[in-house]
Here is the input.
Amino acid sequence: MSTKDFPDTARCLLLTALLCCGIGAPALAADDEAADARLDKDIQSIKQELMDLNRELFVLEEELLAPSDTQVAIFVSLDLGEFFALDSVQLTLDGKVVANYLYTPREIEALRRGGVQRLYLGNLKGGEHELVAYFTGKGPRDRDYKRGATVKFTKELGPKYLELKIVDSQGKQQPDFFVQEWE
Here is the structure.
């Protein structure tokens, strides 16, 4: 051992003696609590960063899977009461089935209170297309009811939004099914 190392060795011996006697324990406990608090703060910061990255990844994934130039989104809304109880919807786009959805009572209640559901999000080339929606449920007098709505539309550059609307027709005493293009 050299003379340069003696002060460090002496400090280590003094610290060891203090620890053995318990004199330095409160100071070390306070340091441990401060370290735990810093660690908790760091963990919370990392969790927040992870959530932010996850959100950004979701947005990037949607842009990659459905770029806005070729994107088509189809929504469902209800404005009905006594003439139709929706059970399911099937979508065909240019002759291909692209979505089937079976509704729960909770989802139907949310739609009745003004909610709008995104039923389909995908890509389409520009040009003419045909959308057919089949609605299944219970109609007037609790009879099984299946109706369809068809629309031909032109997909141009930019996103296209279509809404499938189900409304009660008081005059006909039955539901009406419409497809509306959003501007």
